[in-house]
Write a structure and sequence with these properties.
The chain has three domains: about 80 residues, no CATH class; about 70 residues; about 40 residues, no CATH class. A hairpin with a 5-residue loop joins β2 and β3. It is built from one helix and nine strands. The N terminus is likely disordered. The radius of gyration is 76 Å and the shape is rod-shaped. It is α+β, with helices and mostly antiparallel strands and about 250 residues long. Helix content is about 55%, strand content about 20%. The longest helix has about 130 residues. InterPro entries: MAP70 (IPR009768), WD40/YVTN_repeat-like_dom_sf (IPR015943).
Length: about 250
């Protein structure tokens, strides 16, 4: 294995190359550098006989230590160890970042679960609020219906009040008529009583007449026959007092 240290020349234009000073003769013909930026170089190794590309390496820096192996199958540089250390550091950073991300993911998952629970609680609250609103609307509809019925009842009450007023007037008229009829009844009672007094007077007069010694005889005022009349069924009675004929007909 042979080694060579190459001082990197000043950056050239993209695509240009610089050959290595004193290149090794064991299978490597030249070493070309291609700079893509101010600090980024591409190293290409070519076979001496077949002019075949043996390897390629991207390096950032001003000095490159090249190590050529005997079998010409491997090519390594001093930057490999540095890259390994940097890789380890980067791997540690990645692991730390992964751990932080996992913790953040776990926290986010817990937050999502809490948010899911809160969302379900809010959905239940919204459903309860919707049911409450529906009940309130139903009650409001019932209240409106009751108000409409109350208005109808108030109209009916007003109509009944007017009817009661009319009935009251009719009642007063009937009371006045009853009072008049009562007065008429009293007058009729008085007349009946007066008629009764007259009847009593007649009966008294008849009794006095019977007490007197009068000539009693039967004679019909129609046919002048005695005892029974051929014109009527019942007999007719007549009294002769002091030359005056008093006829009583009971038919």
């Amino acid at each position: 294995m042979s080694a060579a240290t190459a001082a990197v020349p000043a950056p050239a234009a993209v695509g240009s190359g610089k050959e290595l000073t004193n290149p090794p003769t064991d299978g490597i013909s030249n070493l070309r550098f291609s700079n893509h930026s101010d600090h980024l170089l591409t190293v290409r190794l070519y076979d001496a006989d077949a002019n075949v590309l043996k390897g390629e390496f991207v390096h950032a820096g001003s000095v490159l230590d090249c190590c050529f192996h005997d079998d010409s199958s491997r090519f390594s540089t001093g930057a490999d160890h540095t890259l390994t250390v940097e890789y380890q550091k980067l791997d540690e950073k990645l692991k730390l970042t992964e751990s932080l991300l996992e913790s953040k993911i776990a926290k986010l998952q817990e937050d999502n679960r809490a948010l899911d629970r809160l969302t379900k609680q809010k959905e239940a609250t919204l459903l309860e609020a919707e049911r409450t609103v529906e009940i309130a609307l139903a009650k409001a509809a019932m209240v409106d219906d009751m108000q409409n019925k109350n208005q109808e009842f108030m109209k009916q009450i007003k109509i009944r009040q007017e009817e009661n007023k009319i009935l009251d007037r009719l009642h007063r008229q009937k009371v006045a008529e009853v009072e008049k009829l009562s007065q008429t009844v009293r007058e009729l009672e008085e007349a009946v009583l007066a008629g009764g007094a007259a009847a009593n007077a007649v009966r008294d007069y008849q009794r006095k007449v019977q007490e007197m010694n009068v000539t009693y005889y039967h004679r019909c005022i129609f046919c002048k026959s005695s005892l029974f009349c051929t014109q009527t069924v019942d007999p007719c009675y007549s009294y002769h007092i002091n030359g005056v004929d008093i006829n009583f007909v009971f038919c």
